[in-house]
Design a protein that fits this description.
There is one protein chain. Helix 2 packs across helix 3 (59-74). The longest helix is centred in the C-terminal third of the chain and has 29 residues, at 138-166. The chain is built from 5 helices and 5 strands; from the N terminus they run αβββαβαβαα. It has 167 residues and is an alpha/beta fold. It folds into 2 domains: 3-87, Rossmann fold; 124-167. A 3-stranded mixed beta sheet has the order 2-1-3. Strands 4-5 form a two-stranded parallel sheet. Strand 4 (48-51), helix 3 (59-74) and strand 5 form a beta-alpha-beta unit.
């Protein structure tokens, strides 16, 4: 990626701000966005805000969503994206649309406020392993297990490469 494009993406964490006047996409926590809202109550520097992992329902996330709802009334052009793997999407759409559940048909949810986009995720097999007896040093046992799994995966990948290269 060219350096000019890299400068367009930045992030802010508690004691570090890696942004500039060229920044167009900024990653930050809900707490830092709340702090910015104290200085700029309409978050006028932003044209779109994405709240990810909204199902985690932290106090900061809940307050931020309430503030974004108020800002949206004064700034209807502000785009708000709320994403989550396990979210009750209809509830959030009703929240931003100020709509009572009983007054809407399912097909009308969102209207001009927004849309729900559902994407199917992929599932991957998970092996759950248990120790036969308690480990005297669980940290050492965990590290050993990680290395065992890593070694096993590397061996499997190496054998797959050999299998495919011989075909």
């Amino acid at each position: 990626m060219p350096l000019a494009d890299v400068e367009k993406i930045g992030y802010s964490i508690r004691f570090e701000d890696v942004t500039s006047s060229a920044t167009r996409i900024k990653f930050l926590t809900d707490g830092l966005l709340l702090r910015e809202a104290l200085v700029d109550p309409l978050l006028s520097r932003y044209s779109a805000i994405m709240v990810d992992e909204a199902h985690e329902r932290s106090l900061s996330t809940d307050i931020l969503l309430g503030i974004l709802k108020k800002i949206r009334k004064r700034r209807p052009e502000l785009r708000i994206v709320v994403s989550s793997a396990t979210l009750q999407a209809e509830d959030f759409l009703r929240f931003f649309g100020d709509v009572e559940e009983s007054s809407l048909q399912k097909s009308e949810i969102g209207g001009s406020i927004g849309r729900i986009i559902a994407l199917e995720g992929r599932t991957f097999p998970v092996d759950v392993l248990y120790l036969e007896e308690p480990a005297p040093d669980y940290v050492e046992a965990a590290v050993k297990t990680v290395f065992d799994i890593h070694t096993k995966v590397c061996v499997m990948r190496h054998s797959e490469k050999n299998t495919y290269s011989s075909v």
